[in-house]
Write a structure and sequence with these properties.
Blueprint: H1 22-34, H2 38-56, H3 60-66, H4 70-81, H5 85-99, H6 104-137, H7 139-148, H8 154-169, H9 179-209
Helix pairs in contact: 2-4, 2-5, 2-6, 4-5, 6-7, 6-9, 8-9
Keywords: Cytoplasm, Ribosome biogenesis, RNA-binding, rRNA-binding
Family: Belongs to the DarP family.
Biased composition (Pro residues): 1-16
């Protein structure tokens, strides 16, 4: 009677049960190290929300030029229309979430360009206000203005000055100035803008000649 062949020896159990999981655990640890921390994610979210807030303040033309996703432009429109504090806070969080899907650099450039344009406009308004004060203070300023801006209708300017000065005498500090005072400011602002445009045209013409 034949004996059955001996069964092969069983493999000894792994003395180190953690050995098999060592490599997966290391890979998992490396992957976790690459993930941003909660504080970093919170900071990034805050940055995107602030960028979205500045984006909501841009003009329609600048927004259109950025060619943003429709979902983001709709979210910005909703944010502008929302009046409650809590509603605006939650909508801004949603805007920040959508901001992750777009390249932020063109948006930052558009915001910077808008701020620069606003600063120039503010400077131009201050310049016009200073001219109005000087013109109302004395006729010597009228001569300086006409020398610098000869295209101005001198008679119209003097009529506006006469009416605006009379208006100032009859207006208290808490009252709104009359129409001549405002029209004088508009005349000055238009004259300054025309002079600046002419200067830019001269510079471009000089550049073409070179």
């Amino acid at each position: 009677m034949r004996r059955a062949p001996p069964s092969p020896p069983s493999l000894a159990p792994n003395p180190d049960p953690d050995l098999d999981s060592e490599l997966p655990n290391e890979a998992q640890a490396e992957e976790e190290d690459d993930r941003p921390s909660k504080s970093e994610m919170k900071r990034q979210s805050h940055v995107l929300q602030q960028l979205g807030l500045q984006l909501s303040e841009l003009s329609g033309a600048r927004l259109e030029a950025l060619e943003l996703p429709e979902s983001l432009t709709d979210a910005l429109d909703t944010y502008r229309k929302t009046r409650s504090f809590e509603g605006r806070r939650r909508q801004l969080q949603y805007v920040g979430k959508l901001m992750r899907q777009v390249d932020p650099e063109p948006i930052r450039e558009a915001i910077a360009a808008s701020k620069l344009g606003s600063a120039k406009e503010t400077l131009a308004l201050h310049h016009a206000e200073r001219w109005r004060e000087e013109l109302l203070a004395g006729d010597d300023a009228v001569t300086r203005w006409m020398n610098a801006h000869p295209q101005t209708d001198a008679q119209h300017l003097r009529n506006l000055l006469r009416s605006a000065r009379k208006d100032l005498l009859n207006t208290t500090p808490d009252q709104r100035h009359g129409r001549p005072y405002r029209e004088l400011f508009q005349l000055i602002k238009n004259g300054l803008a025309a002079a600046q445009a002419a200067e830019l045209a001269d510079d471009e013409a000089a550049g073409d000649d070179e």
